[in-house]
Structure formats: structure tokens, C-alpha cells
Amino acid sequence: MSSERQEGKDRIIFVTREDHATPSSAELVEEDPDDPYEERGLILPNGEINWNCPCLGGMASGPCGTEFKEAFSCFHYSKEEVKGSECLEQFRSMQECMQRYPELYPQEDEKEPKEQSSETEQTSEDSASAERSGANSTAATEKDSNATQPNTESSVES
Amino acid sequence: MLKCRIAWRKLAPLARASSTVCRQNVRRAGLTHGRLPAQAPVAHMSTGPTGGGRENQLYILLVGAACVGSGVYLYRTLRGDQTRYQERVDEIAARHQKVATEEIAAPTESEPPAVETTEAEVVPETEPQAEPAAEPSPEPIAELSPEEPSAPAPDAEAAAAPSDTTEPSPVAEEPVVQEPVVEAPAVEEPVVEAPVVEEPVVQEPVVGEPVVQEPVVEEPVVEAPVVEEPVVQEPVVEEPVVETPVVEAPVVEAPVVEAPAEEAAEPPAAPAVEEEPSPPSEPSPAELTEPAPAETEPVVESEPQAAAAAATESPAAEPPEPQPEVVAESVAESTPATPKVPSHTPYLLIGGGTASFAAARSIRARDPGAKVLIVTDEPDLPYMRPPLSKELWFSDDPSVTETLRFKQWNGKERSIYFQPASFYISPEELESAENGGVAVLTGKKVVHMDVRGNKVKLDDDTEISYNKCLIATGGVPRNLQVIERAGEEVMKKTTLFRKIEDFKSLDKVSRNIQSITIIGGGFLGSELACALGRKSHESGLEVIQMYPEKGNMGKVLPEYLSNWTTEKVKQEGVKIISEALVKSVNLKDDKLEILLKDGRLVKTDHLVAAVGLEPNVDLAKSAGLEVDSDFGGFRVNAELQARSNIWVAGDAACFYDIRLGRRRVEHHDHAVVSGRLAGENMTGANKPYWHQSMFWSDLGPDVGYEAIGIVDSSLPTVGVFAKATAKDTPKAATEKSGTGIRSESETEDTATSPVASSTPAPAMGAHKDDYGKGVIFYLRDKVVVGIILWNVFNRMPIARKIIKDGEEHADLNEVAKLFNIHED
């Protein structure tokens, strides 16, 4: 059972696993999905891409930012059967740009699952960027799937 | 007047009376028996028979003279003002002309008349000011610009301007090219032969400025005033572009994109722009006399700023002010040898720390092709601070002080620099960069800020004008008065820890001494003590930590937790001296002797003072910004705005938090969040501070916590604890998330399976007061305003939500259930 004691103005409660087994009765305020103040994930409520999403790291702001934005936008709005199939030109120019900055966008081979999980990682901007700039189509696909899971936490320094 | 009249009134009758009496006396003297008749005042009518009267006449004369005199004075003054104003306006117009002509000349492209028409249309829209300015310019130009090659004819100026500008700036980019093209048509339209003539002239100058100058001068003479106006418009736009580091893209881009909109701003810009070509063409001394360049430069300065800020200030008003300042800048600009500092940037970020970098990234993400200039007085590119007191000390790499790379517990390595040098562009390239970029100007300090003129001055007297500015100056470590008073020798053995150089020097020092003392029991002091204590196991270094509180983090953690933490720190090998107030510090036999107020004496080799941060508000005075008296720092609103085009973020910002009230936060994540928010607001978002930032601290591998909101130990707290297992340590948390920067772990997908910690569970024992892991709520008026997650990780979103709601919860144990503290 839980034990409690008071030390001056501070209250201390010790709880066991059983104490916390029952669901909480605390009420939380309902979230407003259109709250303009809230931090947004990768895709904004109006369907546009949030270039300022921490999950993108420095992709949209670096030297190849313009190319990246063009390629990703094209992909995002692509209505083709094979999504992004008409965006090869943009992806190609993006890759060309990234090859000019190997320090920022190292061309590493990453496994798919790792790419997905570390899409939002920024432990080393290198590996993260590398993943993204890797195989264009796979990266695009991953981005898309990640895009559908908007990140709500955004206090990432990258 | 009145006094005169009164005096006259009083004196006149007397005078008359006395004279009359005199006469009477003289006559009567002989007749009477010598008795002077009574001085009966002779009654006089105020007006004589003719209605004038001597009195009145004199009075009228005096009044009249006074009126005439003041009238003459008034007239002369007004006249003088008018002339001066006119001259000023003319001079500005003249400069416009010069720029315009230069622009046109450079590209030598012939635009279809359509372009011209647009120009002409745009031009008329703008202010009529340009016109009158243009017209009189021939005259004023003659007067004012011995310097301006585009002497009498405004056209000449226009032609000259393009040529001038194109010359000095080899980096005349597309914008510039576009501009001249546009200009050319405009100029060509009114005058057919002049542009043609000018152009060839301009072409030449590419080689030598003087050559350009001359032709330009000649050309304009021919042009008609009509041309001037469009030209004026153009130069404004183009100038910025053409100018070497001077007027920035914004001006250029603006005209290209939103010519009509920018019109208003342009004329003011134009004068400035005009100036700029001048400085570059300084070498063409032939025509330019000493004072001339100086004049133009100031104008240039003010102008770009005016343009940049899209200020609607009249050109007349602008130039007079910047004039003295600009001279210095123009000089700087004209020397091609020195690295060119851009004279204008759309986004200026003062300070090169975390907040600044976050803002730069945000601006670049939201404003395509944005040009951002970061000015920092440190020699380093933007870097993150937390590893300086944590991870970097745990590195096995002996060259860590050089590489500044740290290995996180999961093996992944990264540099403390946010981005490698290749991410940034050089300041010289900033203006001409097609897609913009982030440029960092290191080693320069902003010493003065002119908010009205939208520009700043650096410590080397260079001036940079901006459209939007962010102040992210952070702070400087505080020092103890007793140490400062102790003298130079003691100061040499003291480290105020904040920057990379402090880390390097402390690392070096700590290897060569036997004993080190850290004064301060807060985040920095405790982390450094733990880090040094860990190292002391190998080196035998004695690490002492002293502070006035009862336990480590005494101002943050409730007492029971603070005591518990202090025990942990002791286990790291640190000698703790609590409740210690330093009375004096002396140097004796090359050892520091610290005398405490209670009499204890501590002998040590080196001191580290971690007693707080003084926010850097040096610019408040010159910028006219408010400084908060309670928290220190610049006072800003909920959108982090101080004044119209100025935002403040990071440690230096005392902002209004909608939920928690006004405060100033000195944490890494806050710098990121506020920097990003400031960047968003600088690009038009107008969002208030809403996403609550968090902070974290690791005191050794076994004690770590994350916190959010107001975490002040003076508030009542409620702590809900469970027993910790081996998996609940900071080490395990970072291994799971793959990052040592705890704020990042939130946004990561922990797809990789959690790595079970192989270290044995900390010897916590089955002690009842074992605060292994739990949640601590800080309450203010029964509302939760702060939460600490004690050895419980990756639950920050829930904590953030609770604080955001700001609800009164009856039973906090129920709230604690939301955190699932028993699970991983």
C-alpha cells in the first residue's frame, strides 16, 4: 500500500505497482487539433509541409535546403500511382547538391528500419542526413510514412 | 513692449513736467519770492489734438520696430530651412540618379518597352518626392556632389550608379542584372541616347573606376528629369544589390518581386544605394573629393537601412542622421583587401549560441532563400553547451579538447557544433547567394544599436543594417565579489565557466593541480563537480564543492531530494562543504586560501565560480530596450518581441509565459524553443511562447532527472515515488533513445530495442527513503506549475500536457498514475 509523509511543505508518497494499477481518475483538458499555438508535426493541419519541424533536422535549412524542399514538395503533392515518380529530376538535383557537401550529408548505407527510427534523430547530423539523402525513393517513402505520424514534441535542438 | 510703455508713461510726464517746471521756475524765479511752485503734474491728454501725440508716436515706433525685427528673423530662418531641405532632397535625388545610371549601363541589355512602362508606372506610384527630388537634383547635385560622378544630370547619376555599382561588386548577381535591365529600359525610355552612351562607358569601368565615373558624369547631363524618376526608383532597388557588401538582397529582391510595394521604401533606399556605389568608386578619386565620399557614404548607410526597413522616413530625415556614422563604414567598404562585412542583411542575429542557431534554422525553413547573418564575439561557430560540463569530461579521447566530439553512452559520436563549417556560407557571399544561407561573422561584437535607423555598429566601427533583428546575446558568468576584490593573482587561478575556451583551459588546469574547488551548488557547479570527481579517480585530484545551501540543487529540489542528491555527489568523489559563505580569498605560497564566514579554511589550487549568469543587456541602452528588474534580461512580450523589428531569445530574454507568467529561463532546450519561436515570428508567424521547454541534469550515471516548468524549491511539492530498478538510470535512458541530449529523446522513435543496462543496480537498499524513481509536482496556488521526472524518462509529453492544462487536481497521486512510473 502507499505510504505518505509530510516534510514541512513537501509531501512524499510511496506507491507500489498495485497502487498504480487502476486507471487514473485525473482529467485532462481535451486537445484542440487546430490550436494555432501548438507545435506541429511534419504535416500541418492544412496539408502543407511544416519545414520547421524538428524532425527534419537541418534538411530544409542547409545549403541544399531549396533542393530538398522542391523534391519533397513534389513528392508530397504527387498524385501519381507510383508516388513521386515525376519528381526524379528534383531528387536528382537534390542528391547532386548533397554530394557537394559530404560533410553534411554523408553517403552512408543505412538499413531501412534504422532509417525510419532515426529519421527524427539528430545525434549526429551526418548519419541522419545520410539516411535521408540515401536512396531517393526509399527515403521518400519513409518520409511519407513518417509524415503520417506527426511528431508532437519538437524541442529538438539539431 | 509693455515695460517700455509703462516706463515711458512714467518718465515722459516727469520729463515734461520737469522741463515745464524748469521753464516756469526760470520765469517766475525772478517774479516770485523764490518759492518754487508746487510740482503740479501737468495734465496731458494721451492723444494730442492731432490724435498722434508724441508718446503714442514713440510707442508705435518701438512696437513697430520690434515687429519688423521679428518678422525679418522669422523670414530668414524659414528661408534657410527651406533651402537646406531642398538641397538635401536634391542631393538624394542626385544619388539616385547616379545609381540608376550605373545599373542601366552595366547590363546593356535592351528591354522591351513593356518593362519600361512598368517601371514608369511603378515610379509614378511612389512618392512624388522622388520627382521633385529628381528635378532639383541637377542643381543640388552640382552643389553637393563633387563626389558624385553623376554630377548635374540626374540621368548621369542613374547611369553612373549602375556602372559604379557593377564595378565594385564583382558579385553582381542576377538580381543586380535583372535590376539594371529593368532600369535600363526605364532610363532608355526618356532618353534614348544617353543610356546608350552610358552603357559603353559603363562597360569600360569594369576595368577602372575612374573611367566609369567620368562618362557617367557626362551622360547624365543630357537626360531629362523625367528619366530621373524611374531611375531613382531603380537605383533604390538595384543599389542594394549592386553594392558590394552593402545594400542587401532584400532591396534587390523586393523590387524584383514586389516592385510596387517597395516603391515607397525605394526612394529612401535609393539615396542610400547611391552612396554605396560611391564608396566602391572611391578609388576613382579624380572626381571625388575627400568630403564627397564621406557624404555619400553616410547617405548610403542611411539609405540602405531605410530601404531595408522599408522605412517610410523621408530621405531628407534619414541622411542627416547616419552621415557621421557612415563615413567610417564607407571607408571599410572601400578597401577590397579586408574581409567584407555585409553592410545590410535581411535577418541579423546578434549572438552565436543555441538560440541564435535555432532561429537561423527556423528562418531558413520558413523563408525560402533567406539570408541570415549571425554576429558573434566568440571565435567559434554555434555550438551546444550541455556537453561542456558533462559528456566532454567523460570522453576517453585525449584530443577531445581539440575535436570537441563526445561519445554518447550508446557509442554514437557527435560534435558539439550544431553543424560543420560547410553548412554556413561566408559573410562576403551572403548578399549574392542565390538561395540565401546562414553566414557567421565571428570575433565581432555589436556595441551599438540604432533602432530608428535599423542598424547596428560593431566594435570595429562597421555598420550593418537589417530588416529584422534577433538579440540572443546570452549572458556572462557571474563572479563573487570577494574573488574580484582579491586581486589579479587570485583571478588568474579562477575559472568562470561558460565557453569552449573555458572548457579547454579548465581541462588543462585540472590535469596539473592537486586540488580544485567549485563554488556554487546549482546545475553547473554540481555537474562540473561530478565530472571532475569522476576524473579524480584516476588522477587523484581533490575536488571540493562549496555552496551556501544545505544540499546540491538546493534551490531546485525539495530538501529531501536535495539531501539525497548530495549523497550521490559525494559518492562520485566530491568533498562537499555545504552552508558555506565565502568571506575572503587570498593567495598564500601559491595556494588559494578560502576563508568562510563560519571560520572554516579551505586550501586549494584552483577555483571554479559557478554562481549564476548575468544576462548580457549591453545593447539595451543604445537600442532603448527595456530591461527587467526582477529577472534581468530584456523584457519582451509573449511573442518574444522587444520592439518592432527586434526579438530576443535565449538566456537574455525575460519573456511573458502565458501559462506561468513572466520569467527568464537559462536552459538549453529553452534556448532552442525560444530561438525557433523567434525565428518563426521574424518570418511572420506571431505565435506566443506556448510549447513549454524542458531541462535535464545528470549527476553521475545513476542520478538523472528531467524537468519542466517552474521548478523552485520554495514552492510546496508533492512527490510520488516507486522503487528504482537497474533499468531506471540515465544511462539506460540514453541508450534507448540514442542521444545524450535529453531534449532530443522526445522526438525520437525508439525503434531500436532498449539495451538493458549491464551495470548493477545502484546500491540503494530497501531503505524506506529510497527515492529511486518518481514524479515530483511543484504547486502554486494548487495548480501544478512544475514537474520533475526523477529517473523516469521519455514521459515529458505527459508532463507538458499537465502544465499546459493548468488545472487544479484534487489528488496528485491520480495524476502521477498517468506517468506509469513502475514501467520502463
UniProtKB/TrEMBL annotation, chain A:
GO MF term list: protein-disulfide reductase activity
In its keyword annotation, does this UniProt entry include Disulfide bond? yes
Pfam families per record: CHCH (PF06747)
Where does the sequence pass through the membrane? none
Q: Where is the CHCH domain?
A: 64-100
Locate the compositionally biased regions of type Polar residues.
Answer: 134-158
List localization entries. Mitochondrion intermembrane space
Q: Name one GO biological process term.
A: protein import into mitochondrial intermembrane space
The protein, known as: Mitochondrial intermembrane space import and assembly protein 40-like
Automatic annotation (TrEMBL), chain B:
Q: Where does this protein chiefly localize?
A: cytoplasm
Name the segments for region: Disordered.
99-177, 259-345, 729-764
For this UniProt record, give its keywords in alphabetical order, as a comma-separated list. Answer: Acetylation, Apoptosis, Cytoplasm, DNA-binding, FAD, Flavoprotein, Isopeptide bond, Membrane, Mitochondrion, Mitochondrion inner membrane, NAD, Nucleus, Oxidoreductase, Phosphoprotein, Transit peptide, Transmembrane, Transmembrane helix, Ubl conjugation
Give me the stretches of Polar residues compositional bias.
750-760
State its location(s): Cytoplasm, Perinuclear region; Mitochondrion inner membrane; Mitochondrion intermembrane space; Nucleus
Recorded hits in Pfam families, A to Z, give: AIF_C (PF14721), Pyr_redox_2 (PF07992)
Q: How does it assemble?
A: Monomer (oxidized form). Homodimer (reduced form). Upon reduction with NADH, undergoes dimerization and forms tight, long-lived FADH2-NAD charge transfer complexes (CTC) resistant to oxidation. Also dimerizes with isoform 3 preventing its release from mitochondria. Interacts with XIAP/BIRC4. Interacts (via N-terminus) with EIF3G (via C-terminus). Interacts with PRELID1. Interacts with CHCHD4; the interaction increases in presence of NADH.
* Similarity remark: Belongs to the FAD-dependent oxidoreductase family.
Q: What is this protein called?
A: Apoptosis-inducing factor 1, mitochondrial
Native organism: Xyrichtys novacula (Pearly razorfish)
